[in-house]
Fold these 2 entries.
Entry 1:
Amino acid sequence: ARDYLERIEEGRGLNAFLDVRPEETIRQAEEADRRIAAGQATPLTGIPIAHKDIFVTKEWASTAASRMLEGYMSPFDATVVRSLKDAGMVCMGKLNCDEFAMGSGNENSAYGRVGNPWDANAVPGGSSGGSAAAVAAGLVPIATGTDTGGSIREPAAFCGITGMKPTYGRPSRLGMIAFASSLDTAGLLGQSAEDCAMVLGSMVGHDPWDSTSVDMPREDFSRDLGKSVKGLKIGVPRSWMGDGLDSEVRASIDAVLDFYRREGAEIVDIELPMAKLGVPVYYVVACAEASSNLSRFDGVRYGHRAAEYTDIGDMMKKSRDEGFGPEPKRRIMIGTYVLSHGYYDAYYLKAQKVRRLIAREFHETFRKVDAIACPVTTGTAYDFGANADPVSAYLSDLYTVPASLAGLPGVSMPCGIHSNGRPIGLQLLGEHFTEAKLLHLADAWQ
Ligand code: GLN
């Protein structure tokens, strides 16, 4: 823990951490030592981890990278945080991200942007950018993240590490500061699929305090690591590999597919025609839920309250105006619009119907294939400021949001380095609850 605290100090220039409290970390590490001495250790006891600042923590401030929650101390730990603490993992602090997890470049944090350890001009990806940068720079061996529409898979790809988004409902959402509740999923960013498999088992499980939490038997996600991939069938959505995709990204993905073929897997072409509607559907659904979730920040119950106001209405207006940054405000407005009387049927209801069709298309595809292999993004990490137009930023989520809408698990893994010096990623998607299979496939390549 002390060694990692030193690394975190040396890596401060990345701005990956928002809150570090060495005395708390050392206290947890000493507790881990005691457990090991008493023979009560789990395989994770004493291993450092850091949490995206979307998870609430008792000992570290929880801000969602927003001014709205500056300095906020939660009275409880998120279930995911508590489960990993119970397994003996040592918390190194809280990680920067996009404000309320809204973004793809970690340029939307109220506490400044996060650097990409590969290239000072490149974004680390978002919204779990602090998690990805910290792991890639070796400031922490593994970190939690959240993926609502790609926020684990995309930063993992941009920083050359492995990202694991489990099936929606498998990890608890209790204590995850809500963005879009029907999509928000906790997951991991680590150095390898093996590391993610080790930690995932202690992170998921039924939580009676989360009504969407699924009750599944405990599972050893490492059980298939090292086995052959022979006989597995991998589908490739050909239209995703066409024109819009950087040619070097395509070549790197093809090289991985060739590897799987040589190892005895079968590679087949698939079509996902509904998935191309993913971006508009996602931004209607996610903004609608965000506008509802963020209504709790009213200056009364949590967080920021304006210093001067005339009456309660003015207090709420000023508090929200001062507390929220531009991206949450934009989404609250879009969400309020699509939910309002007269537009609800045309936008929100229509989006829900198309969402169902996208999910059905995936489920039908998974009757024919074990997994889908596809790009994470159309290119590598972009330069700071290069994706500032909100519409182009939203459109860049085209490969990650369809799986989110269907609640599917996904792994993003590094598969090459572009001639621009930045890492290239590939994602593997699977049917609900096939995390072990995806980690197996990723591990085979790694
Ligand atoms: N980039 C997407 C968005 O801005 C995804 C965010 C996420 O997964 N948290 O909404």
Note: Residues 2-203 form a domain with the Amidase signature (AS) enzymes fold (CATH 3.90.1300.10).
Entry 2:
Amino acid sequence: MSKPIVAIVGRPNVGKSTLFNRLVGSRIAIVEDKPGITRDRLYQDAEWAGRVFTLVDTGGLDFVESGDIPRQVRRQVELAIEEADVVLFLVDARAGLTSTDEDVAALLRRTSKPVLLVANKVENFQRTGQLVDFFRLGLGEPIPISAAQGMNTGDLLDRLVSVLPPVTAEEGEPDTIRIAVIGRPNVGKSSLVNAILGEERVIVSGIPGTTRDAIDTYFEREGRRYMLVDTAGIRRKSRIEEAIEKYSVIRSLRAVDRCEVALVVLDALEGVTDQDKRIAGYAHEEGKASVLAVNKWDLVEKDTRTSQRFTELIRRELAFMTYAPVVFISALTGKRVHRLLEMVDLVAQQQCLRISTSELNRLIRDAVLHNPPPADKNRRLKILYATQGGVKPPTFILFVNYPELMHFSYLRYLENQLRAAFGFEGTPIRFVLRQRD
Ligand code: GDP
Ligand code: GDP
């Protein structure tokens, strides 16, 4: 199921990142302590009243060309209008109405998407008189909140959930591998999609997906069916998308949601950037299998160790997904595009692996013998029993005596043991701890 995207927009200092942290705060998971994931979160899943959505802080997206503030804010808003399902327009009740707020409102009044006007920094609800001015923005009654104190944010979330688009059913046909081609602008996503579709038999193209504007392309290769998620967004770039290219991360988020395998495209000439880490990190966190495609390999001067050195760089920079196979390709010449699809097949299969309970418990027993679980002064962690709870991604439930004694490093040890024994290439692995006496 595709998650709706909710973008927070507004001038600098109105409290966007404070609100972001407030709304996602409770959900930041303990499992995600993996090194290498960029910690400055710009997007994060949040949940309210049973609805899950992805919240994006557009203020955190840094712009290449600095520009003046009204212009930067304007870009954020254009991006939000283009890519998000709901816009939260944040204003500062203490500072009062500013001309930048008015500019933003003028843009937002033109979209048919739901916009919620939110007045932040209202700590004293006796004095909501200060909000009267904001009615002038023509976006309805402002919702007063204090992001810092968490006041009235429950009401805000109720309102937000009521305007989210309806839940759409899981799409796609069985036996079809859904692939999202993701990456920064200019790494070669469109070229890669065209290279794939040029070689393989396209079955149907241009079937609108359930998500608004998304166009998916189906193709067949060696008797197997694939779907490229949201190829319209990749192949036909709108004027706005070009203008705000840097932010195409939102488009990637949406595509990742709907895929099984993420093809993360990197640019061989540029190495691994922070933006690459964010995009790949999202695929990882969403539990999707990944293949790393190092594109434009034709432009690299190579000696016998070049690809090895590049792989080492990737392993270091994307340390949270050392499980992902790396393929050096050229979308331009088509070199190794075939190999890339073989890797897609492999990881799609690996993310569905099931380990029998007896094999799993034997492995855990051996692992524990070699390297005992953590202990504190007078208690030692015991893993009583393990079972595989699910696939996509493979998830293991560990029944333990004291869950709080578990360390991230011990889980990583178990993960490594599982990978050494069973593979799980290209897919993240998750653990769930359950307490048992
Ligand atoms: P952003 O630039 O829009 O992301 O704004 P920040 O979240 O960084 O907040 C800007 C400043 O406003 C910080 O000093 C925050 O502590 C402060 N702030 C944020 N929310 C509130 C609030 O609800 N009440 C008050 N009084 N201050 C707040
Ligand atoms: P996107 O923004 O990620 O979709 O990137 P594009 O597919 O539009 O490619 C950006 C630029 O890189 C274009 O000028 C392409 O021709 C070029 N390009 C893409 N793939 C390759 C490649 O494998 N080798 C070379 N030399 N150029 C490439």
Note: The chain is about 35% helix and 20% strand.
